[in-house]
Write a structure and sequence with these properties.
The complex is a heterodimer of chains A (about 120) and B (about 220). Helix content of chain A is about 30%, strand content about 30%. Chain A is α+β, with helices and mostly antiparallel strands and about 120 residues long. Chain A has a single domain, classed as Alpha-Beta Plaits (2-Layer Sandwich), CATH 3.30.70.100. Chain A has a five-stranded antiparallel beta sheet with strand order 3-5-6-4-7, with helices on one face. In chain A, strands 1-2 form a two-stranded antiparallel sheet. Chain B is mainly beta and about 220 residues long. Chain B is about 5% helix and about 60% strand. In chain B, strands 1-12-11-10-9-8-7-6-5-4-3-2 form a twelve-stranded antiparallel beta sheet. The relative contact order of chain B is 0.16. Classes of the chains: A alpha+beta (about 120), B mainly beta (about 220). Chains A and B meet through helix 1 and helix 2 of A and strand 4, strand 10, strand 11 and strand 12 of B.
């Protein structure tokens, strides 16, 4: 029975190692604007908000950011980067989110903001 | 009058799913979010479902079955985030977890007996993209059916650093201490995988017990 348990563990470990370096799902970038978002889409004629986020180290936990922002009808898409500790929010045309509201949304997700920058109509 | 425990069906399902609970990966989600956790280890099977009300509070239902002593506990559990530290490259958390409910045992001398039950514990963790440490403890009181204290510590390392959307892998060593257990100290090397809204852990303890955890956020 112990041998079975050990075999199960090593099988699981081998599967993990084989899957260990998957191609990144992270979107490629052209200048500051990604070609696509991990959720939703890039609205080329809308405002792009870049938010520096502290504590952004865990993918499983960072899912909350995607869920919170993608519930909003004024958001076209979101891109999350753990490497850069930032999120990009692509807004629908004519829409924006005030800094105070951004702060609340990111705090609700369990993080805090280090910086906010906007790029208007980035075509 | 004897009351049939609700648990039989729930626990059977838990066992079939290989449910596990505990070193609960972030028991609080975003406001409006649901979290489902299951856990199996050498002593018990657990099931936990909670709803996050605020960034610092989730409430949920917890069911656990202790196999050796043959008793079960059903409780309402509160998870409180006491403090979080968000740094540019790391995050640390401090939680309080407590529950109140009832325990049932049909192992002599309890004879199909329900008793009040409650538990309380603290959990803390720190992680960056490469390393992870965690500690948790819990004191469970179930009147004359059971009372015990346990504590666990974990240290983990990511063999590679993935970005958002990747399959993430962690190799973790867990040490648990249960003073009243037959085996007081248990070492469990564990493999953690997560992708998207799913997190799974599997390990084998130094006593040969398989552990399996599964967490889903939605």
């Amino acid at each position: 029975m112990k041998k079975l348990h050990v075999n199960v563990f090593y099988t699981f470990a081998l599967i993990a190692l084989l899957l260990g370096t998957p191609p990144s799902a992270h979107a490629s970038h052209t200048a500051d604007v990604p070609e696509k978002m991990q959720a939703g889409h890039v609205n080329q004629t809308g405002t792009l908000i870049e938010i520096g986020v502290n504590g952004l180290v865990c993918d499983f936990c960072a899912r909350t950011l995607e869920k919170i922002f993608m519930k909003r009808s004024d958001v076209a898409g979101i891109d999350v980067s753990l490497d850069e500790s930032r999120i990009l929010i692509s807004m629908q045309n004519g829409k924006d989110i005030e800094d105070a509201e951004l702060n609340k949304l990111v705090t609700d997700a369990g993080y805090n903001i280090s910086a906010i920058t906007r790029k208007e109509g980035h075509v | 009058m004897t009351t049939q425990p609700i648990t039989s069906g729930v626990l059977s399902l838990c066992l079939m799913l290989g449910i596990v609970l505990p070193a609960q990966a972030r028991p609080i989600s975003y406001p409006g979010g649901w979290t489902f956790m299951t856990m199996n280890d050498g002593e018990q099977n657990m099931f936990h479902l909670n709803y996050t009300f605020t960034p610092a509070l989730s409430l949920g239902y917890n069911a656990e079955y202790w196999r050796e002593d043959k008793f079960q506990v059903h409780s309402l559990q509160a998870n409180n985030l006491l403090k979080r530290w968000n740094n540019p490259g790391s995050q640390a958390n401090l939680y309080l977890q407590s529950g109140i409910g009832a325990a049932y045992s049909d192992k002599a001398p309890h004879d199909a007996d329900w008793q009040p039950a409650a538990y309380i514990g603290m959990a803390a963790d720190w992680e960056n993209r490469r390393f992870y440490t965690a500690y948790e403890n819990r004191y469970l009181w179930a009147d004359d059916i059971h009372d015990s204290f346990m504590q666990k510590a974990r240290i983990g390392v990511a063999p590679y650093v993935g970005d958002y959307g990747d399959l993430h892998t962690w190799v973790i060593l867990q040490v648990s201490h249960t003073p009243k257990a037959q085996e007081e100290i248990t070492f469990t090397p564990t493999l953690r995988l997560f992708k998207g809204d799913h997190l799974a852990e599997a390990g084998v303890s130094n006593h040969g017990d398989v552990t399996f955890n599964w967490t889903i956020r939605f």
